[in-house]
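Summary for the steering committee. The consortium agreed at its last meeting that each partner would contribute one worked example illustrating the joint modelling workflow. Our contribution is presented below. We chose a case with several input lines so that the handling of multiple components could be demonstrated. No manual editing was applied between input and output; the record is shown as generated.
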Amino acid sequence: MLRTFTLKFLRLVLVVLVVTFITFGLTKLQPGDPVSKIIPFGTAQQKAALTQDLGLNEPVYQQYGKWLGNFLQGDFGKYYDSKQSVNTVIKTSLPVSLELMLYAQFFALLIAIPLGVTTAYRAGSKYDRGANATMFALLALPNFVVALLLAIYVGAKWQLLPTQSNVIPFPLNPLDNWTYMLMPVVALTLGQIAVYMRLLRSDMIATLQEDFITTAKAKGIPTRRILWRHALRPSSLTLLTVAGLNVGALIGGAIVVENVFGVPGLGKRITEAILAKQYPALQSYVAIIAILYVTVNFAIDILYSVLDPRIRNARSVA
Amino acid sequence: MSAESFAESSATTPSSDAPLLVVNNLKTYFKTDRGLVRAVDGVSFTLERGRTLGVVGESGSGKTVLARSIMGLLPKRDVERSGSVKFEGVELVGADNSLMAQYWGDQMAMVFQDPMTSLNPVMRVGKQITEGLRQHLDISKDHANQTALALLSSVGIPEPERRLRQYPHEMSGGMRQRVMIAIAIACGPKLLFADEPTTALDVTVQAQILDLLQTQQRDRYMAMILVTHDLGVVAGRTDEIAVMYAGKIVEKAPTKVLFSNLRHPYTEALLSSIPKISDPSHTRLKTIGGRPPNLINPPTGCKFSPRCAYATDKCRTEEPPLSAPDSDGHQFSCWFPVELSAKQTSGVR
Amino acid sequence: MRDPLPDHGEELIHLMHDSEARSDVPADSVTQHFAAVSAGTVKAKKKGLTIGAWIAVGWMTLLILAAILAPVLPIPDPINDANPLKAAQGPTLNHIFGLDGNGRDVFSRIIWGARNSLFIAFAAVITGFIIGGALGLISGYFKGRVGGVLGALTDILLAFPQLVLALAVVSFLGRTVFNVTMALAIVSIPILARITRASTLSWSERDFVTAARAQGAGHIRTMLREILPNVLPAMLSIALLGIAVAIVAEASLSLVGAGVKPDVTTWGNVIFSGQAYLREAPSMVLFPSMVIFFTVYALNYLGDVLRATFDVRESAL
Ligand SMILES: Nc1ncnc2c1ncn2[C@@H]1O[C@H](COP(=O)(O)OP(=O)(O)OP(=O)(O)O)[C@@H](O)[C@H]1O
Ligand SMILES: [Mg+2]
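What follows is the complete predicted structure of the assembly.
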């Protein structure tokens, strides 16, 4: 048990290292010298000083080591020009993105699970076919399309909800926070519902064919209880893994949606940093996303063994 | 504290003078892409309280479908079920699931063929037993746990406290089948179906499980329908035997009568396919020649005629009806029944 | 010769390559998308295509034809035929999809956008198909260390949010058509490598492969002649979805301002330029969005038809 966890944890660290090193390498690959991009009209002296300052004349691995050392100590670097600390930006923007993704994930599952369970139970019925066709269409609907539709109609035409948002932190005013969050969350949620619902449905259909479901039925357990207590849990393993891996898609979606609605989250900050060529900041953002993603999946690995006792045992034996 | 007391308390008796189970012309067809599968095609029999019936036939003869159809456990979609199943006088064909749920587990229960897949892999064994108890009997959690404990020891599981907290995968096949039996008998059903309860088990535990079923059946005065493809299994264990072929009962008789006086060539073939102790150890297992019948386009006349050594033209064109029971209660459907020689019985225990 | 890997190699591979526990679970957004698309759709249809499939094929043909023929079609230039006086107009008889913020014909821009967006998506996925396919075939065929290391590498690449990866690559390398294509190719390589590898693993165990080897067929010949034809359906059906995903990714990149520069007309850029006029002329955003939706839908549908026809199982992914 401990051994597998250690291995998994080491793997997690390795992934983060490789990913950050690759992004670090990429910043070095780009054409032209960053200093002339930051101060295109600076004198040669100024440029040399900045190069020195940024440590750009050291070998790549040393630069990487330095960045990593700082990162591990919680110093995420500074913006080139304004010297603004990346830490403060992260402190204000990460919670916004996390809130957005959390809501999206929560509502997607909240809607997808009952849909998946009931359509699986009534597989082949009109209800099932209708829901399935809708979800198939939703799969083809990119989240930016949903975001733009919302922005056009709910935001611009009918003016029901604010579009240019300055997200009010939840603790300050929950209601305001929600009015600003509503459209971004819907835009991010719709596509996920389709993914989760369709995967759960097909897993549930398979589970409902299992012998132990007949056993439960033959015990006289009511259908509702069979669906939720007996069939859902064994069917939810795939769903769970997918929900974890989906954090990757969710992060991508959050970047797009934040940009469409102007939500001041990490996704928006990342694109800003990219456009302004703020590489040290970008480097830290990418690392944070990688860590976030890998950690979520690590946590899910653990949850996995909670949900399925067979895995729990296989591991403790190994 | 034993489970029996609950059996009594839960036993409701709507019409206690009617036979426990009367099956009349039960048909169960599956609609498939290839056509209509006539898995059960007009089966009738009566089962009295506390009696046991063995249902025997080759693989694919419709035994499982018959059991599930009687119990109403088949899906509704693409299944045509007709005829009549009366349980204590109450008609069950056409009953909806909410009515059936009152019978399932409480009045009738089933032990399935494969204990490896019949238990929920992610639910503790104890929970799987108490769940049914709490569904049908109005008892507390504690009480249910106590009962589950008693049940586990009564089906011969050592260290029941520990086992209750285990998951199915932590148990052997034999243990799991004992658990399945405990689940089935938990609420004291009046009728127990055992669908090939030992086929998936090691030879060494098969007899133990069959003996367990038999003692439980006697102790609790349950009626039991024991489904098997092996005449040897039912030989000493059931009151009556029904032999099934292609969805029909082709011969039915009290066990002793059947073995001493079998009349149907199919029964004869089945019996000769049982390995005998007296056989030299390397004798090849005899199997019945020919293939099991196609249930979508069954042969005309007697369904067994294409494989029957004694078949005549009449057999191939006219289907023999199931005869009325004779004085022994013996019924069969054959134009040219096997004569009363019955030499084959010598090898049977 | 010494082993290419030190003694801890196995351990390292095991450490990096963790697939047993979730081998039947989609490992990246495309495979996941694939699983979601194919989940629970009706089993393989009878021979021949359904009406839906014909519509999808029809739409794609129309689109590809329009994209190829864009230069000879009688439509205004998507970049230069600007008319600031008629900026941001809704649909009219002359301009059925309206005019954009610079007074350029949106219909023409969508057709030229198809040319560029489809080129980017196809080129990216074809690159991914060839490189990823080769990697997958090799790592699945030569199990052991080669396979382990390659598998571990793809796993690591997959362990990263793909839009972020593409975003990083484009922003570091520059916003050209080539770089966007490469970024999307980099994203699709591990995806195709993974499915090819999984599929190869199961096929290379078959008797006919062993038989071919026993008759003296070389490794390369065995891979190309015996295994590849069997692995191809799975690769193709996921590649179709990969194209759909690449189309959406291209548009997403443009939308956050990190796609191809605006002087190249892509669907993403058409939408991006319309974003500023949501109130005045939503048509500028609605029409290209609709076109993307139909295209992605058609590709999803065809990918699923392909999967069903060749009975590619999700678990094989
Ligand atoms: N859901 C179904 N749909 C279509 N055909 C079915 C279905 N269930 C069973 N059958 C068919 O009904 C026939 C009888 O099956 P059944 O399972 O009752 O046989 P059995 O006598 O129990 O055999 P075994 O000894 O193998 O368990 C078989 O031909 C089977 O293919
Ligand atoms: Mg059976």
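The longest helix of chain C spans residues 219-255. The two ends of chain C are 35 Å apart (CA to CA).
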